[in-house]
Amino acid sequence: MRYELVIFDNDGVLVDSEPISNRLLAAYLTELGHLTSYEDSIRDYMGSAMHRIHDLVLERTGQRLPDDFDDVFHARVFAAFERELQPVAGVSGVLEKLAADGVPYCVASSGSHERIRIGHRTTGIDRWFAEDRIFSSEDVGRGKPAPDLFLHAAERMGVEPERCLVVEDSPLGVQAAVAAGMAVYGFTAMTPAAKLARADELFRTMGELADLLV
Description:
Layout: E1 5-8, H1 18-31, H2 38-45, H3 50-61, H4 69-84, H5 91-101, E2 105-109, H6 113-123, E3 134-136, H7 148-157, E4 164-168, H8 171-179, E5 183-187, E6 201-203, H9 206-212
Parallel strand pairs: 1-2, 1-4, 2-3, 4-5, 5-6
Helix pairs in contact: 1-2, 1-4, 4-6, 5-9
């Protein structure tokens, strides 16, 4: 394999959380008076850190979200994860292949450390991710689409950016990877291919990704 490190996004790539979290986000924002459909949430917030939600609502409405917004939202999401969350189909096979081939990998997510760990534990993929392989937007000043998180992960893993491959499913994540000077493969299971057009390769199933990682 021509890359020395594979950096996975988490939500929508490792765990099938995007339908759950965006359904709940749209409902909560609407409950607060900011009418938001599921499709709006996917378009505006998928792949972003929590601060982007606050920033966009303030920019569009001039109103700040409640101080406890993050806590309430995460409580609803984590409860739903316990009931519904599944790993992305086929992702265990990809992780097994990387481990067998001795290819280093990690996760770099816009979500909090708590969200990452709950998702991994609930779906059983926590066995693939030791503490030193988990990176969150909480670790850096700016989340995606800024390159900071991916650059931080590469630095901590001891690999130069140009030797890294990012696996992403959101336009914001692809933008961040490109800005970091990394190659990026776009997962189109939920996101139209046209929105991930800046990716170096596109794939629709984890089986296709495994073939690309030869």
